[in-house]
Each structure stands twice: as C-alpha cells, then as structure tokens.
Amino acid sequence: MIELRDLSYVRMGTSNLEEAESFSTKCLGLQIGEQSGKALYLRSDDRAHTLCYFEGDPADQTVGFEVDDDTKLNAAAAALDQLGHPVHAGTPTECALRKVKTFIGFSDPTGNRIELVVRPERSGKRYFASRDAGITGFSHVGLHTTDPARDEKFWTTVCNARVSDRIGDIALMRVNAIHHTIALAPGRGPGIHHVNHQVESNDDVLRSYYHLSDQRVPIVFGPGRHPTSGARFLYFQGPDGMVFEYSVGVDEIEDEETHRPRQFGFEPSSLCMWGAKSIRPR
Amino acid sequence: MSVGNLASPVPIIQLCYVRLAVSQPQAAATFATEVLGLEHVPNKLEPFLYRSDARYHTLCLSAGAAKPSIGIEINNESDLDQAAKALARAGFSAREATSDECAQRFVRRALIVVDTTGNEIDLVLRPALSGRRYFPSRDAGVTGLQSVGLRSRAIEDDLKLWTILGAAVTDRAGEITYLGIDQKHHRVVLYPSDRAGLVYVSYGVESMDAVMQNNYFVQERQIKIVQGPGREPTSGQIFLRFAGPEGYVFSYSYGLKDIAPRHRPRQFTLEASSLCEWGSECTDVTELQPARAG
C-alpha cells in the first residue's frame, strides 16, 4: 500500500504568469518564495513552496503527495507499475523544479496527474503573507473524478486514504487526522476541482469575502459551512478558472480505529448548512 | 442580571420591549412570524404581540401608536419615583401612563419619558413574564430581544437622560455612543441623526451558524439586507441587519461581548472598519454610514 503522508504541492500551467502573480499576492495572499521568468513559487506556510505556477497549458495540473523515503517510493512505483499505471521517475532537473529530493509521477484512474515526492524542501524563513488573509497553510485539494466509486477504490486500496464522509457517492478522504485531504468531485475529465488553504478564524473567511468582492474576484460558493467537516468556507475563482477555497475549523478524526463514514444525501444542504448555493459552472 | 450595584444610582434592570407604530399591522405581523420567526402571543388587548424569550412579549406592533417606543425596566417603585424627579429636574418631559396604557404594555406601572430628540422611552415596573417556554414560529435561533439603536439629534442631551437612569457609555465610534445597562457591552446605541426613531431592533441568536443561515434565508426571500453579515469591533457581535416593514430595520446578532469589570469607554475612529471589521458597508441607512456618524 502506498502511504501518503501529506499533501505537498500543486503545480499548474498558466497562460499568463503576470496575472497569476497578481492574483496570488493581491487576492489569495500567498508569499512569493521564488520567481523565475517561467515559474512562480508560492508559499503558504513553512514549506519552501506549496503552489507553483509555470508558463504552460492551464490544463497541465499536478498534485504532489509526500511519502516517507526512497524505499517507500520505489515500492510505490513497483505497485503502480503492476497495476498498469505507467510510472515516470523524476529526473534531477525535474526534482530541482519541484524542490524535492526524488519523485515519481503517474495518473490516477480518472487521469489526474499525481506525484509522490520524497524530502520536499522547507524554508528556514517564516511565512510572511503578502496580504493579511490569515492563511495558515495549504491543506487539501478537490480532484475531478469520472467514476467516484472506482476512484475511491484506487485511493483507499492502492493508497492509504480512508473515507471520512460521503455526499451521495462522493468521498471525502483523509490520509492523516484531518477530516479530508482529497475530496473527489464529479467532472467530465481530469483536473483539480479546487485548492484549499486554511485560515485562522471565521473572521478571516468573512473579511476575505468582502475583500475579494471589492477586488471583483468571482465568489462561486459561500460564505458557508460544510456539515461534513464543520469548516466555514469561501470558494472563489482565480486565473484560468481555477477555484480556490479558504476554510477554517476542519474537524479532526480522533477515533481512527472506530470512525465510520457518514452518508449525506446528494443535495445542497449537504454541501452548505447555512444555505449558500454554489454558482460555479459544472 | 444587573452588575451595576457598584455604581449608584442604577435603577435600570433591562431593555424589555419595543413597540412599533405601524399603519398596516397585518403585513408587519406576517413579517414578525414568517421572517423574524417570533411567537405570536394571543391576548385580548394587543392583537399583534410577539415573544422572543421567557418574557411575555418583547415586540408589539401597534396600529394606534403615533411613534415607536422602547420599554426599560426599573428596579422598584422608589427607584422609579426617584428617576421621575431627577428627569423632571433635568427638564425631560415625563408622564405617568394610564392604567390602559400599562395594560397594553403588560407592566404594572409606566412612566412615559421623551428624550431631547423626541424618542419615547417607557420606564416600567414589573413587566410580565410568561410561564410557558418560548416556542418560535421558525428555526431562526432567536434567544431574545438584545438591543436597540436610537436616532439622536443631540447626543449629549440624550445621553444625560441615560446617565440619570444609570446607563454607562461603554464605547464610542465617532459620535455613535454605545450604552451598557447590564453585563453586556450595550443594550442601547445612540446614532447621530436629524430625526427621532429607531435605527434597528436587534434580536440575539444562538450561534454564528444562525446568523449566517438567516442571511441566506432573508436573501432567498428577496428581503433587503441593510448591512452584513458583519462584525462590530466595539461589541464583538456578528450581525445581520435587514429591512422590515414600514422602514423599520431588524437585526440578528451573536457574540455580544460582556463588559470587563474595569472597562473604560474606548474611542474608535470614524471609519467603516470601526462599524464592521469584516468590511460590510451600509448604503441605505445614513446613521450606519461612517460619513454621517461624525
């Protein structure tokens, strides 16, 4: 079994790096860790980077997960290979671009690009936000799925993800105590559904609601509260249509042994207990 | 409820009710139960009477009243007599309510006082409680009548009335003056204005969830949100202010802070962030706009 320890980063192509930079700093509020002509590395916590925009196709999106060491990485590569998922071993140049020691890349059954990384870099300098959004760190991703049951099986049997709750057939899965690190979302093809950053307080969610509204950033869902994880949230749209989420107050699963996933109906109140309706196009 | 025994005299016990003068009580009544979610109180005297907590009523929609008024409970008979004298000395007009007027207010005795601006304030004795628990008409999470905003043409003069009654200034934002009468940050807020009246009537709700659920509830019914969801940096309360019938504004709020024992009134700058730290702004009610509250 592939043991995912934590999320590491998201890498996304963009047609307009300048716009991505402007959004990331003025709206999202991340810190620029490093910048070259072709890539922008953004920090959200004590890691050297958790989001990388690079010059390229916006559909080129990758999620990186950390695994323990090279032994585990090699075992993962063998397991994926056996299951028929072509595995790419990262070259030294590719590793440097990701600020990791080693990594492998593959696709999940829907076709989402996933990387497993060893020793992602941390930064000695503390995180200093570009605006006071209250961000405490990169926390989870939503991944599109073309077959929720098949993909849930992949993440929970090939990898070590556990289902925390389900909304209809959509699984919210954890890889550690945090309620979910991977949220599946129905989609027509592969891609990242949303990128989540945690913020300090309820106040930060609402402050950003007004701040981003003033900046004319499209708010696509919220402010609201998920009955599943208990988190207060705000979803908004960034460059190339990518949706970002701020949230606070995600439950931790304390009883790992005995926790049973709850089943929520596939209806709006399962996504927001306050009554917010998502306006994002499907 | 009162922690005011340290300072004397403090005859005020609580804000007990709001009487709203309405010309079309039926429409207002529908709003009271279907939107606000209050419980109608069937009785022989006032057809449009509503509960929000253990009290017999906290809201009365009155077709006969000329202007709105608020009810303030005074500790006892002698405190009321003392308050009456002090107010008369300070030049405030006050008259003893008739027995009919007392009955309509569900109190044993009332002194009807008018402040310098022209707001009517009933100083009442023994307002009625109900033995039956409060049963709301919808799940709005209302915990009780919490505070009122009053318009004031002369803050300093109106403040004199409240000081005589033992209310204390807890904070100011520009000239907006927050008045505490018990352990809570405020129960009455005076807003600079050019006329008399209520800026809003605020009902406490049990959680932030309740404020936000009500936010979407009123939005879905196309009820105008006057301000919010927002948060007052002075009192800490999360609020949602929305348009009620006949120009009245109602508010749901959660998280009104207790006043610390050695609290001194603070002066907040006159800017939007002193009225809402989240960034909500009010476009309809001039009293809630920083440009006006000078």
Account of the 3D structure:
- The complex is a heterodimer of chains A (282) and B (294).
- Chain A has a nine-stranded mixed β-sheet with strand order 14-15-16-13-9-12-11-10-17, with helices on one face. An eight-stranded mixed β-sheet of chain A has the order 2-3-4-1-5-8-7-6, with helices on both faces.
- In chain A, 46% of the residues are buried.
- Chain A has helices at 17-28, 70-82, 92-98, 148-158, 202-214, 268-271; strands at residues 6-14, 31-35, 39-43, 51-55, 61-66, 88-89, 102-107, 113-118, 135-145, 162-167, 170-174, 182-186, 192-199, 219-225, 232-237, 243-248, 262-264.
- The mean pLDDT of chain A is 96.
- With 282 residues, chain A is of the alpha/beta class.
- Chain A folds into two domains: 6-118, 2,3-Dihydroxybiphenyl 1,2-Dioxygenase, domain 1; 135-271, 2,3-Dihydroxybiphenyl 1,2-Dioxygenase, domain 1.
- Helix content of chain A is 21%, strand content 36%.
- With 294 residues, chain B is of the alpha/beta class.
- Chain B has two domains: 7-125, 2,3-Dihydroxybiphenyl 1,2-Dioxygenase, domain 1 (Roll); 142-288, Roll (2,3-Dihydroxybiphenyl 1,2-Dioxygenase, domain 1), CATH 3.10.180.
- Helices cover 20% and strands 33% of the residues of chain B.
- Chain B contains six helices and 17 strands.
- Chain B has helices at 25-36, 77-89, 99-105, 155-164, 208-220, 272-275, and strands spanning 12-21, 39-40, 49-51, 59-62, 69-74, 93-96, 109-114, 120-125, 142-152, 168-173, 176-180, 188-192, 198-205, 225-231, 238-243, 249-254, 266-268.
- In chain B, the strands form two sheets. In chain B, strands 14-15-16-13-9-12-11-10-17 form a nine-stranded mixed β-sheet, covered by helices on one side. Chain B has an eight-stranded mixed β-sheet with strand order 2-3-4-1-5-8-7-6, sandwiched between helices.
- In chain B, a hairpin with a 7-residue loop joins β11 (176-180) and β12 (188-192).
- The longest helix of chain B is centred in the N-terminal third of the chain and has 13 residues, at 77-89.
- Chain B is globular, with a radius of gyration of 18 Å.
- The two termini of chain B are 33 Å apart.
- Chains A and B meet through α5 and β14 of A and α5 and β14 of B.
